Here is the input.
Amino acid sequence: MTDKHYLTFALGKGRLANKTLELFEEIGITCEEMKDKNSRKLIFVNEELKLRFFLAKGPDVPTYVEYGAADIGVVGRDTILEENRNVYEVLDLGFGKCRMCVCGPASAAELLQHHERIRVASKYPNIAKDYFYNKKHQTVDIIKLNGSVELGPLVELSDVIVDIVETGSTLRENGLDVLEEVCPLSARMIVNPVSMQMDSERIRSLVSRIREQLAEHDRSK
Ligand code: PRP
Here is the structure.
């Protein structure tokens, strides 16, 4: 008889969590409780497989994983970079693909060439800081916003923004362009370093099953 304890997953609420659950279902990991959209429950359990799931705000997922409140998390690479927590990134899940970019009006492109002290608005101040200070060696003023960041240059709060570009339609509809690409993004699986050691076999086997399933997706494309 095995006395397995629960493996706990923190999933970033919304599209990423739905995509993750679809992927888990394909490898036989289901959580029926979670499908009830009217439920106000916060933690969902699969007793048979000894798995627990909870949904959290994206930026909180690395926090739960770092402290070991969740063994495994699924969240966008943007959040992982911004939060900079002590977690292992073990797998690129391939969905939620988009790019972190410096954007602005075409006229702002020049401001990025001459190390001028410009204003940069972003929901991701740490990513913006790292890009401008460490990669471009350009001193800038970073202004933290919480959403609708494209407003920054439109109302002259900032010269440029650092933000996620997926289809590019928000930029197009507001007369803004991608000026530079910071990095590509997608959903990633992260693991608590202690869990990775203590539950190594279970976690490695799960990761390899998911990896195989993703390869299967690629083959059937
Ligand atoms: C994100 C991002 C961009 C937009 C990019 O915002 O911050 O604004 O999506 O997508 P697109 O290239 O397909 O237009 P989100 O919708 O999450 O809302 P927010 O602006 O409030 O952060």
Remarks:
- The chain is about 30% helix and 30% strand.
- The pocket of PRP is lined by residues 123, 147-150, 163-170 (CB under 6 Å).
